[in-house]
Design a protein that fits this description.
It is a single chain. By secondary structure, the chain is α+β, with helices and mostly antiparallel strands. It has a single domain, classed as RutC-like (60s Ribosomal Protein L30, Chain: A), CATH 3.30.1330. The protein is built from three helices and three strands; from the N terminus they run H-E-H-H-E-E. The chain has a three-stranded mixed sheet, covered by helices on one side. The radius of gyration is 15 Å and the shape is elongated.
């Protein structure tokens, strides 16, 4: 799969994750606008099984992933609640898929 397709797949998964969180918050009587903090974790080295390390960093693939997630985050959560973003190697790595995890603290 081309690198751009991996990035698009990862960002689509991230959007689905945020929409799932939105549904959970709504069911609990809250919503995205009531989030006071988020923590996001992702595996930045997910492409290394398919690419050489120098290509990964030369083409700034990790920068594209971070920028893409930031744009998604701002589009869905325009009020930008405080967040911590952690990129770690091999967190939840499953084959060629990028795993992104998100925790939120929200009020009713």
């Amino acid at each position: 799969m081309p690198r751009a397709a991996h990035l698009n797949e990862s960002l689509a998964s991230a959007e689905k994750m945020i929409r799932n969180i939105e549904a959970i918050l709504k069911a609990a009587g809250s919503g995205l606008d009531r989030i006071i903090k988020t923590t996001v974790g992702s595996d930045i080295l997910w492409l290394l099984d398919r690419l050489e390390l120098n290509v990964y960093f030369t083409e700034n693939m990790w920068v594209h992933l971070i920028e893409g997630f930031e744009a998604l985050y701002k589009r869905i959560l325009p009020f930008a609640p405080p967040r911590t973003t952690v990129f770690v190697p091999r967190m939840g790595h499953k084959g060629n898929r990028q795993e992104i995890q998100m925790e939120v603290i929200a009020v009713e």
